[in-house]
Write a structure and sequence with these properties.
The complex is a heterodimer of chains A (about 100) and B (about 180). With about 100 residues, chain A is mainly alpha-helical. Helix content of chain A is about 45%, strand content about 10%. The longest helix of chain A has 17 residues. The chains are: A mainly alpha (about 100), B alpha/beta (about 180).
Amino acid sequence: MPVTELQGRQVHVDDEGFLTVYDEWDEDLADVLASQIGIDLTDEHWKVIRFLREDFKTVGETATARRVQTVGGVPVKEQFALFPKKPAKKMAYIAGLPKPHGCV
Amino acid sequence: MTTAPALVPSFDDDAQTDRKLAIICSKGNLDMAYPGLILANAALGEGVETHVFFTFWGFDMIAKSRMNNLQFSPAGNAAMHLPVGDMRLPQSLAPLPGMTAMATKMLKKSIADLGVPEVPDFLDQIVAAGGHLWACRMSADMNHFTLADLRDDVEGIISASDFIELTVGAQLLFI
């Protein structure tokens, strides 16, 4: 499994670069991950990311955009505004989680 | 000292992709409504411009008076299984009274259990994700429907040639 260095920290990632170890993530790292893909985190972004982290802890898999809307309370339209073009993958990346594998 | 660049997923944000997907939904059965919606939703989530065109029986998916009442019938569907194992529902039983209602109820439950929305909700989500909905001119004329009879987010009633023009360069799915 590859290890990559982000601002002096070693983290385990998959072949694409998604973090693979839940506990290697913290909120400081989220800022670094977000800046890697050109996103500045605002309170609205944080609401989504904290939901994804908590939800993963209970459910064991990454929430899809649908679930972020229905359970996390952030409408799909807003997700596209916050994380343009590919919200589900970008949200997962910044939250240090695997890509969601649900279809909807 | 040099360090390897950090491994970051490529989201292809900079790529000037002109990938476009057009999906023609021509079926109004509950089970056949879903494939197009699932693919449209997935394409939008990948940043692909997506157009959904409703024609013939697919019109029921966007008609206000019909969209909440799509049904699933096991008649003619030899792949309809009973809830236990791989037992097939005998086709002779499929047309019995009440069978469509029961099968519809069961399918709706299975879909809801997966966290997948009902058809009108799903279309809401597709539009929120930037998808475009179009209605077929000939189907509208056959049903005596105008835009007022359709979901408010249907962008227009267009002819087949309008659709061909609109989807130039698109990948196309007919369902």
